[in-house]
Amino acid sequence: MQYLKLALFFTLLLVKTATAQLALSQKIAGFKTLKIDTGIILTIDEPVNFNYKRPLKVILYALPNGNTTMQTYGKKLSANDDWHFDIQHIGAQTAFIRETDKHSNYVVVYAENDLKSWPAWRKKYKNADQVITNIVASLYEKYKNFNPEIYLTGHSGGGSFIFGYIGANNQIADYVKRIGFIDATYAYNTPQHKDKLLNWLEDKNKTLQVIAYNDSVVVLNGKPLVSPKGGTWYRSQLMAKDLTEKINLSNLNLSDRMDFFNKNHTIDFVLIKNPEAKIYHTNLVEKNGFISLIFNGTKFKSRNYTFWSDRAYSKYISD
């Protein structure tokens, strides 16, 4: 009878352990939504097959102006669908990234606010940058047991979120391993940001990626799209120039782009020229821009994709 009780005890123990592991696996997998009282919604896309022994990269993607999370995630367009669903495809590009690098876990956190504009949201709240700092710190704490690398990325007005974080802190946290801007450097300011970026980049394990295009030549409705010094073309070059104060960057001037980069491309500014004065603002994301932002400077650079070329992730786009 004692043996029976003992066997039953160990059986129940194994069942509880398996159930706990399954619950944890289910908790990690799928999408979660967190709402913050300042009108922020965080949507967390975690891998279904989460391997606890693999490195974890948590990518915070600050949404562009005018986009919802679902639009940013993307889908195949059907009749009467909003065109915003077909210009980012961060969901499909994430799937491509996970399929290409199976040795890491990638979590993508979509950061949206109720104004659909991070610059407008930061103007509305006096403590905005502290809220941003708390969000980044909270994401690190959420995954702390997995020793995560935090990536701060964004497109368009999403860059304001990143600069809000940089500006609010004396130094960029060590767990922030990669910062990436896709046509999102409008808010770059030398006095506020240069030294903090330089200090952060002293660690060779840190990565800075910038993608932009020549928006200074674009005319929309008879007016310049941006001021001479207000667009990402000017601001990105200013940032690159500021970094050369302490970092040696090579300059490659090609027919279609300029490139400022260090030896391993862990620091890279890819600036698309624009002789036809077109608006390439969303094309920079669509043409494998998010993939490039994550893989540039790694062994996966240009593996099965080319930046500024046809979509490499088409088969992953949701119906």
Automatic annotation (TrEMBL):
Q: Which SUPFAM superfamilies match?
A: alpha/beta-Hydrolases
What's the domain of life for this entry?
A: Bacteria
Q: Signal peptide: which range, if any?
A: 1-20
For this entry, the protein name equals: Alpha/beta hydrolase
Question: Per UniProt, which keywords does this protein have?
Answer: Signal
